[in-house]
Amino acid sequence: MKKILLIFFIINFNNLSFGSIKKNIINNLQNIDNLSFNFEQNINGKIEKGNCIIEYPKKIFCSYNNANNKILVSNGRSLVIKTKSGAYYRYSLKKTPLNYILDKNFLINEIQNLEEKIIDNEFINFKILKEDNEINIFFNNTNYNLVGWQTLDIYQNLSITYISSLKTNQQLKSDIFKLPDSN
């Protein structure tokens, strides 16, 4: 009888600890209006670095530290990538995985219904399958902050984004998410 009670306690304790992980991540997300961070992005072995600002819902501004001075901007509906050399690409945000990553309420709803995976006792991973998108999103196992994501981009390239120097709820310029002109 004692063995049965001990097994029951261990199973329930593990369920409670996983439940509190989800709860902590969700509470953390609910208290965030915007994020600013440095990033390192690896797309099929090509590494780019820069900094980003995300404002929920669905707005992002990223400035890349490269010779092209590439920027990526979403106003919540469209996504534009523009370089100093004149390249200009405009996409519907709905056709990209960022549509989901930049939607805090979507993430919260998904996390509530998904099983988390603990990686090296350091990261918490949730795998989101939505339409034709597979998104792996990662959180820190200590402070429950977002630390990155992995997706396939619109050209089916594996894209891994690592986040560092995260700051939350910063004062933002009102026009930062204005889409740049094509010229």
Mean pLDDT: 89
Q: Main beta sheet: strand number and arrangement?
A: 11 strands, antiparallel
User: How many beta-strand elements?
Assistant: 11
CATH class: Mainly Beta
Give the tags.
3 helices; alpha+beta; outer membrane lipoprotein receptor (LolB), chain A; 23% helix
Care to describe what's here?
Strands 6-5-4-3-2-1-11-10-9-8-7 form an eleven-stranded antiparallel β-sheet, with no helix packed on it. It contains three helices and eleven strands; from the N terminus they run αββββββααβββββ. The chain is globular and about 50 Å long. Helix 1 packs antiparallel against helix 3. It has a single domain, classed as outer membrane lipoprotein receptor (LolB), chain A (Clam), CATH 2.50.20. A hairpin with a 3-residue loop joins strand 2 and strand 3. It starts with a helix and ends in a 15-residue tail after the last strand. By secondary structure, it is an alpha+beta fold. The N terminus is likely disordered. It is 23% helix and 43% strand.
